[in-house]
Design goal:
binds pyridoxal-5'-phosphate; Aspartate Aminotransferase, domain 1; 2 domains; alpha/beta; 38% helix; globular; Aspartate Aminotransferase, domain 2
């Protein structure tokens, strides 16, 4: 495939038009492939990685990145890619939004660390106040941690302290992080759980409403109803009855392959939780912060959770996780029972305060991006038998690859080939899926539409060349 025309040629040819369309950027422009990736510098970097970094930490793309701005990332060999994964769903308004970097820099000059367990500082309390204003009604108390994984851990600790019931409902196709508890909450053995047991025993792994893979091909509404009935049967079984304290769910499953539940699913889960004295814990780490076109994914389902877990985009590119919940639940843990040295550091909270504002401003742009993504993905689906399903909401979409549309046999190798070939076309793509057979698209919410359109041309070309075995 070699090099592709630079996207910035459009801005050069017609600067006025590009400015009008919001496509002109100072600094990094692209996509631009100048050396077939991985180039020599990236290859050398990967050799160093093999020498000094554990192989348990696998690098998905054979690239050394040196710089990023807006929707673009640049590798050490000078290639510029359109980043459709944004650091696994972190840069929801592109890399390094100036408002966020300015806020972090200003805080670096004042106070970098003291620990909120030692004394209060304004950015943390300000962020907690902001969360009380932007989270679903009644969720008013927060704690901040260093990651989504740590936030999930804290949500479960808080939930257990409140309900005094040990068991947790989670989903086979879920992902909630990498700690021992978090991996206990997923059904995907490889690569997450294998070799790490014993895990937390008190977890009921149930099936999420995943209409494309519904074993009985039920309608979405019937699939949702049947799945909730199965969960009800599981929590009512004699071994655990009265001992299940919470259900944790992503409003749209991310790692699982952008599984958008039928609209009935969350209201039914809410009712189930109420009927059985269980808390509904909403993991918004990937689907939150505008990704679905609403600030929180669960707003799409008109459901109010008891605890909301945030992360990824909340920190504006810096590490942050949060739990925000109803006062009575959040006040259940004993004094000094929660915390951590760095959680909610002044610099990260200052960045988050700016990130929330920038993301809120970008949300109105999502409906046009969503329409473009739906249209282009539908075209790709119609033209390619190997694409078994395309689905998504807002700016969160996936293509699911299969060997055969009728049997739906997953094709993870094909998805991987598309991901690697995408690099040669100037695209940075992320895999996903319980079977590893999806490519997920998580562009910045404010990506210029002509650039996204161009990225779809390149994606389609990548799929065609992968099919032809030429890449
Ligand atoms: C829904 C969800 N929850 C939790 C996590 C874990 O977050 P982190 O990787 O920041 O620990 C992730 C990460 O991908 C996630 O997608």
């Amino acid at each position: 495939m070699g090099s592709v025309p630079s996207y910035d040629t459009m801005a050069k040819r017609s600067p006025k038009k590009a400015a009008r369309k919001g496509t002109a950027r100072k600094g990094l422009t692209g996509p631009r492939v100048v050396v077939v990736p991985p180039g020599p510098k990236s290859k050398a970097a990967l050799e160093r990685k093999e020498k000094f970094v554990t192989k348990g930490l696998r690098v998905g793309l054979p690239l050394e990145l040196t710089r990023a701005e807006g929707p673009f990332v640049q590798d050490a060999d000078g290639n510029v890619y359109v980043d459709l994964g944004v650091g696994i769903g972190v840069h929801n308004v592109g890399h390094r939004p100036p408002q966020v970097t300015r806020a972090a820099e200003a805080q670096l000059d004042k106070l970098t660390h003291i620990c909120y367990m030692v004394s209060t500082y304004k950015p943390y309390t300000d962020l907690a106040e902001v969360m009380a204003g932007i989270c679903p009604p009644g969720l008013t108390q927060s704690i901040f941690l260093n990651s989504g994984s740590e936030a999930v851990e804290n949500a479960v600790k808080i939930g257990r302290a409140y309900t005094k019931k040990p068991w947790i409902v989670s989903f086979r196709t879920a992902f909630h992080g990498r700690t021992l508890l978090d991996i206990s909450l997923t059904g995907k053995e490889k690569p997450y759980r294998e070799g790490f047991g014993p895990l937390v025993r008190e977890v009921l792994i149930c099936d999420y409403a995943y209409p494309y893979r519904d074993p009985e091909n039920r309608s979405p509404a019937e699939c949702a109803k049947a799945r909730v009935e199965e969960i009800e049967a599981a929590v009512s079984s004699p071994e655990v009855e009265g001992q299940v304290g919470m259900l944790i769910a992503e409003p749209v499953q991310g790692e699982g392959g952008i599984i958008v539940p039928p609209k009935e699913f969350f209201p039914l889960l809410r009712r189930l939780c109420d009927d059985h004295g269980m808390l509904l814990v909403d993991d918004e780490v990937q689907a939150g912060m505008g990704r679905t076109g609403k600030l929180w994914g669960i707003e799409n389902w008109n459901t109010v959770p008891d605890l909301l877990v945030s992360g990824k985009a909340l920190g504006g590119g810096l590490p942050l996780g949060g739990v925000t919940g109803k006062r009575a639940v959040m006040e259940a843990p004993g004094p000094a029972s929660l915390g951590g040295t760095f959680g909610g550091s002044p610099v990260v909270c200052a960045a988050a305060l700016a990130a929330v504002k920038v993301i809120q401003r970008a949300i109105p742009k999502v409906s046009r991006l969503e329409a473009l993504m739906r249209n282009r993905l539908t075209e790709i689906y119609e033209g390619h038998e190997r694409v078994g399903d395309v689905r998504g909401i807002g700016a969160m979409w996936a293509l699911e690859f299969v060997k055969d549309r009728r049997t739906k046999e997953p094709d993870a190798d094909f998805a991987r080939a598309v991901q690697l070939n995408g690099l040669k076309n100037g695209l940075m793509l992320l895999p996903a899926g319980y079977f590893g057979n999806c490519i997920r698209l998580l562009p910045p919410l404010n990506i210029p539409l002509p650039l996204m359109d161009k990225a779809f041309d390149l994606l389609e070309d990548t799929i065609d060349l992968t099919l032809a075995g030429k890449a």
